[in-house]
Amino acid sequence: MAAEEQSVNTPSADPHAPSARTHVYITRSSEETIALGRELAALLTPPKMLVLRGDLGAGKTTLVKGIAAALGAAEPEEITSPTFALIHEYAGHMEYVGHMECAASVETSRASSLTSLPVHLYHLDVYRIEGQRQLNTLGMEELLTPDSIVLVEWGEKFPWIVAHSHGEISIHTLHGEERKITLSLR
Ligand SMILES: Nc1ncnc2c1ncn2[C@@H]1O[C@H](COP(=O)(O)OP(=O)(O)O)[C@@H](O)[C@H]1O
Ligand SMILES: [Mg+2]
Fold first, then answer.
1. Which of 9, 67, 108, 122 is the residue whose CA sits 20 to 30 A from 26?
2. Which domains are assigned to the chain?
3. Contact between residue 123 and residue 64 where contact means Cβ atoms under 8 Å apart
4. What tens-digit pLDDT sequence spans the chain (186 residues)?
5. By the 8 A CB rule, do 149 and 44 touch?
6. How far is the centre of ligand 1, averaged over its atoms, from the C-alpha of 102 (Å)?
7. Which residues pair with 24 in a beta bridge?
């Protein structure tokens, strides 16, 4: 396995402790981070907006490469940082087993077998956005459709994004190429 799950925490009395929906992983190369992104994609059933938190060069864009690949949305080399474009949009699909609340049509939501549904993947980098007023010009609320996965690098800068997000993926550089990657879903 390219990336190993270090621990899955259970609920605790400590309000700051990670919840049961927190998953912690260690990767030791960008390839392992892309492989982890492929695995994590299965947990990101739409609609989802997640903050991607971590210093410059932590591996946020690298992780998106794996998520996009798993969705059939783009090849890893096609994923580049949206630092200047601000938003990159990709069309992908996700395989669902059985009934899914978020299915795009009533007919497919009643299917009990494997169903492939379209997913819109939006990859944003709001590092250069200054203030809520400038953020508003992106029209982010329009991205939050039932079939969308919205991944926002530097999203923690904006309370609006945090308030509307379903959680975050944070990446810490431990040393060298080693990264600690934590997925927290609310
Ligand atoms: N374990 C790792 N996971 C992700 N990237 C890594 C890892 N080890 C080294 N790297 C390198 O770190 C850089 C991460 O860049 P990038 O994904 O663009 O970061 P960010 O989007 O967080 O600024 C890349 O050059 C990548 O090759
Ligand atoms: Mg980036």
1. 122
2. 21-91+120-185 (3.40.50.300)
3. yes
4. 444 555 444 444 444 455 558 999 999 999 999 999 999 999 999 999 999 999 999 999 999 999 999 999 999 999 998 877 799 999 999 987 755 554 455 555 454 678 889 999 999 999 999 999 999 999 999 999 999 999 999 999 999 999 999 999 999 999 999 999 999 999
5. yes
6. 32
7. 7, 182
Determine the distance separating the centroid of ligand 2 and the alpha carbon of 63, expressed in angstroms.
9
- What number does the ligand 1 atom closest to the CA of 58 have? 22
Tokens 């669902």 locate to 96
What single DSSP character describes residue 11?
Answer: P
Phi (first) and psi of residue 90, to 5 degrees = -130, 145
Q: Which ligand neighbours the alpha carbon of 81 most closely?
A: 2
